[in-house]
Design a protein that fits this description.
- There is one protein chain.
- The chain has 323 residues and is α/β, with parallel strands linked by helices.
- Helices cover 42% and strands 14% of the residues.
- The protein is built from twelve helices and eight strands.
- The chain has helices at residues 16-27, 39-49, 66-79, 106-122, 147-151, 155-158, 167-188, 214-223, 230-242, 269-284, 296-299, 314-320; strands at residues 7-11, 31-36, 56-60, 83-88, 126-135, 195-200, 252-255, 258-259.
- The chain has an eight-stranded mixed beta sheet with strand order 3-2-1-4-5-6-7-8, sandwiched between helices.
- Strand 2, helix 2 and strand 3 form a beta-alpha-beta unit.
- The structure holds NADP nicotinamide-adenine-dinucleotide phosphate.
């Protein structure tokens, strides 16, 4: 497939499935905009795995900050006239309860809310036949909301307060919200050439996703022989972003390169509209102030904002990559 006239934005492109998708699309001459929390780390890994490094552009984004998302989208709007593909891939799992600087629960904001904000900001430069892909998860099936919740969703249902929080619940809700957002966009873009898809990459794929809590790390390691590797995990989202077989289609959930039914709750179009309204309200309530620039030299040593980790070890990012 020749993608030399295509431009794709990928969030969380410096690691795991995002990095493999970057490598794969770039090997077909696609220009990839790598939106990463740390552009220094992104640059190092891209130089190690990408064939056409001149077709890689790096953008700094911290999805735990709406100001950072705004700044990144403004930069993209200034630099890029047209986006053919957007893969909303970045994600976190297994975090202890924390609030972001925008007073939203971190998993919800990183996995869903900031992607919503990013996409709404860059919608105007999407090509007429653009594809948007959410890297989703089968775990969305585990959310069960009572009917009253579905009629009028509230902030506490999606941005979980501490007393209601478990990391799995927060992750499942964030993935459900992404599928509902796909349905909203499917409706919004009906009768246009734009397509929107959700793709489940595979379960227990051993990436850095499980690094936040050691029992998950052990579980993912045990499951490794039975689960997809990173290349296989990247296949379904890449298929959704590029395959000519999906021309003219939209608003569909994929797993193992095949269309699949999402959960009943995730199919609810009324809920999709209510969650969209709630997302807009949450954004309107927040004043988004521009972030100052962080010099690249400082990014080499800055700590990952919301993970309480030691300073970035780019060598381990490259070593962990098993694509
Ligand atoms: N692995 C699985 O079994 C599995 C299963 C189902 C779905 N998924 C989904 O697949 C996607 C990719 O995950 P993965 O397995 O490849 O995990 P990963 O290797 O941990 O990659 C996650 C990416 O998200 C980025 N990210 C995290 N927090 C961020 C923030 N605040 N701002 C900007 N970027 C941030 C990470 O950046 P840093 O390097 O800076 O941390 C990293 O690049 C996720 O959406 C995940 O939910 C994975």
């Amino acid at each position: 497939m020749d993608l030399s006239n295509k431009t794709c934005l990928i969030t969380g492109a410096n690691s795991g499935i995002g990095l493999e998708m970057t490598r794969c699309l770039n090997s077909r001459d696609c220009t990839v905009l790598m939106a990463c929390r740390n552009t220094y780390a992104g640059d190092v890994v891209a130089r190690n795995v990408c064939e056409n490094i001149d077709r890689i552009k790096l953008y700094k984004i911290n999805l735990a900050s709406l100001a950072s998302v705004k700044k990144c989208s403004d930069q993209i709007l200034r630099d890029i006239p047209k986006l053919d593909m957007v893969i909303l891939n970045a994600g976190v799992f297994g975090l202890p309860w924390t609030l972001t600087q925008d007073s939203l629960e971190t998993t919800f904001q990183v996995n869903y809310m900031s992607h919503y904000f990013l996409l709404m900001n860059i919608e105007k430069i999407l090509a007429p036949d653009a594809r948007v892909v959410f890297v989703s998860s089968e775990s969305h099936r585990h959310v069960s909301w009572p009917f009253s919740y579905q009629l009028t969703p509230t902030k506490d249902m999606v941005s979980l307060p501490e007393h209601a929080y478990t990391s799995i619940k927060a992750y499942n809700v964030s993935k459900l919200c992404s599928i509902l957002f796909m349905h909203y966009l499917g409706y919004r873009w009906m009768n246009t050439g734009k397509g929107v898809f959700c793709a489940h990459p595979g379960s227990f794929v051993k990436t850095r996703l499980c690094q936040n809590w050691w029992p998950y790390e052990v579980l993912y390691t045990i499951m490794r022989p039975f689960s997809k590797n990173i290349c296989q995990a990247a296949a379904t989202p890449v298929y959704c972003a590029t395959s000519p077989e999906l021309n003219g289609m939209s608003d569909q959930y994929y797993k193992d390169l095949k269309r699949c039914e999402e959960s009943e709750l995730a199919k609810d179009l009324h809920l999709a509209f209510r969650i969209n309204d709630l997302s807009q309200e949450l954004l309107l309530e927040r004043i988004i102030v521009e972030e100052p620039d962080i010099p690249v030299e400082k990014q080499k040593t800055e700590h990952y904002a919301d993970q309480d980790k030691d300073s970035i070890d780019v060598n381990s990012l490259v070593a962990n990559y098993s694509g």
